[in-house]
Amino acid sequence: MMKKVFCAAVSIFLVLFSTGCSKKQEASAQGSDSLTLALRAGTYSEVIKKCIPGFEEKYGIKCNVLELGEDALHSLISDDSVNENGKYDLCMVDGSWMAEYISKDVLADLGKLGYELDDDVITATKSICYSNGSLYLAPYYGNVTVLLYNKLMIKEAGYKPEDIRSLDDILKICKFQKKRHNLGFLYRGDTPNNIVVDFLPILCSYGGWVVDENNNPTINNAKFRAALQMYKGLIETGRAVKKEDLIAAVANKAATMGVGWPGWYTPTRNSSMDYLAISGRAFGFSIPYNANIYGVWTIGIPKNSGKKESAAKLLSYLMEPELQKETVPWGGVPCRYSSLNDPVVLAKFPQYEVICKALEGGVYRPVMQEWSQFYTILGKEMKRILDDEISVDEGVTVAQEKLEELMSGKEK
Question: Which structural domains are found in the chain, ordered by start?
Answer without folding.
Answer: 34-143+295-360 (3.40.190.10), 146-293+370-407 (3.40.190.10)
